[in-house]
Automatic annotation (TrEMBL):
GO molecular function, one term: manganese ion binding
GO CC terms, sorted: cytoplasm
Highest classification ranks of the organism: Bacteria, Pseudomonadati, Pseudomonadota, Alphaproteobacteria, Rhodobacterales
SUPFAM superfamilies in UniProt: Zn-dependent exopeptidases
Name of the protein: Cytochrome c oxidase subunit II
GO BP term, example: proteolysis
Length: 460
């Protein structure tokens, strides 16, 4: 099922989307035959319900899709996607306006219903396609679907086929497609270029660590995206239990999300100067792995005491953020699958973010609501700063006690950005179950909200 709209000239079946409280009004305008068919079928316009209505020759002449109640829609996202998933294969066109909801966002949900990760098993299903309705920017919606598909594909690919080199290859492919510049610092060269934390975290793996640096655009404000690219996380010498290691292929979800967002920005031609930095490593176990109790230097000059080798994401991000800060862009955004504490706090559906500027937070929250990409502001709570100061070094990568784990991680990262406005996302990057437009597996979080908000934020 393609993540694109059907051609406008396609012979498409009319599709009426009905809220539960609008079904009776719809039937008042229909023939007795149509009304009798709908009543006999038991169709009640619940979310995701569908019904094909045959014409005189027995072939379908129109289709109905349920949009449920306002209360039901408030408990989920993408009700049109639920309809798309239930319809038989074929092309459809919206024959009436949606009862509620943003048309462009709902159409994106329809396209994302076509996503399936079939690289290793299965085949893409031949599902329902939609003719782009009037009043939406179809090219933009298709670009958003492609950006999300890129993010999902990268996360879903198992670590044996998505190590640092493969993540670099994905970034190089993206750069080639959009004419961006890209450079990579790899292996021992990381030490020569003063990225000691990236090198230290990745040195125990047989797959060399690296820093990916991509740039696009020559005019407009400067935006730098930094994505955590830990392609697999064993926990290092603080080895994770097997149950916690099972989906650690997703620990490069921050990198996957910024690459998807970067694709959106470049495909839509946003008037800005974009830089993408991805520290790509595997946190492995070997004789040269870094140890609990080690004190490590960083690019910023700050020393870090290692109290847990499983808190490695903030280490590789620290060097990348320090590099980003040296350029003094207008905004730095980091995205990372950083802490389990964030999941405990807000669950899998919300993307927690940190920022000091209230107007930036307001702009992002408003944008997130408009595009159904929910985010939640968390505090850079300065009173917790002492928790990341161990005394024996400048910083502690894993404060003891277990309190405020996401906040202390964010405070740790903020220490490496001193010249630039900074925003940090502590995302999950994974859907534990299937929902409309979001199958189980890798998923982007916060990218569409950022894409919507960035123009306003960079004007402030």
């Amino acid at each position: 099922m393609p993540l694109t709209f059907a051609a406008p000239e396609t012979d498409a079946l009319p599709l009426h989307i009905l809220a539960q409280d609008g079904l009776d009004d719809f039937l008042k305008d229909q023939s007795d035959r149509v009304t009798a068919w709908v009543r006999a079928s038991g169709f009640a316009a619940g979310i995701g319900e569908t019904l094909l209505i045959p014409g005189a020759d027995g072939t379908p002449e129109l289709a109905l899709g349920g949009f449920g109640t306002a209360a039901q829609r408030a408990r989920g996202r993408f009700p049109l996607a639920a309809v798309a998933a239930s319809l038989p294969s074929g092309a459809y066109r919206l024959a009436s306006s949606l009862p509620a909801g943003d048309l462009e966002t709902e159409c994106l949900g329809w396209l994302l219903t076509g996503y399936a990760f079939t690289e290793y098993a299965g085949t893409p299903r031949d599902g329902a396609t939609l003719v782009a309705p009037d009043g939406i920017d179809a090219a933009r919606v298709e670009a958003l679907a492609a950006g999300e598909a890129l993010t999902r594909d990268l996360i879903n690919t198992p670590a044996n086929d998505m190590g640092p080199a493969e993540l670099e290859a994905a970034a190089r492919d993206l750069a080639t497609r959009f004419g961006a510049d890209i450079s990579v610092t790899e292996g021992e060269a990381l030490l020569e270029a003063n990225f000691p934390l990236i090198h230290t975290v990745g040195r125990a793996s047989t797959r060399a660590p690296r820093l990916i640096d991509m740039s696009w655009g020559s005019d407009g404000p400067k935006l730098t995206l930094v994505g955590k690219g830990v392609c697999f996380d064993t926990g290092g010498l603080n080895l994770k239990p097997g149950g916690s290691m099972g989906i650690m292929k997703k620990d490069m979800g921050g990198a996957a999300t910024v690459l998807g967002l970067a694709q959106d920005i470049m495909a839509l031609g946003l008037p800005l100067q974009l830089r993408v930095l991805i520290p790509a490593v595997e946190n492995a176990v070997a004789g040269n792995a870094f140890r609990p109790g080690d004190i490590l230097p960083s690019r910023k000059g700050l020393t870090v005491e290692i109290n847990n080798t499983d808190a490695e994401g903030r280490l590789v991000l620290a060097d990348a953020l320090a590099l980003a800060d040296e350029d003094k862009p207008d905004l730095i955004i980091s995205m990372a699958t950083l802490t389990g504490a964030a999941r405990v706090a807000v669950g899998q559906d919300l993307a927690p973010f940190y920022v000091d500027d209230d107007s930036t937070a307001t702009a992002l929250a408003s944008a997130a609501q408009r595009v159904s990409d929910p985010v939640w502001r968390m505090p850079f709570h300065n009173a917790y700063e002492p928790l990341i100061e161990p005394g024996i070094a400048d910083l502690d990568n894993a404060p003891s006690g277990g309190f405020a784990g996401s906040i202390t991680a964010a405070l740790f990262l903020r220490r490496f950005v001193t010249e630039t406005p900074y925003m940090h996302f502590d995302i999950y990057g994974w859907s534990q179950s299937s929902f409309p437009a979001r199958p189980k597996g890798g998923v982007g979080m916060g990218a569409r909200a950022l894409l919507e908000a960035i123009p306003e934020i960079l004007k402030q």
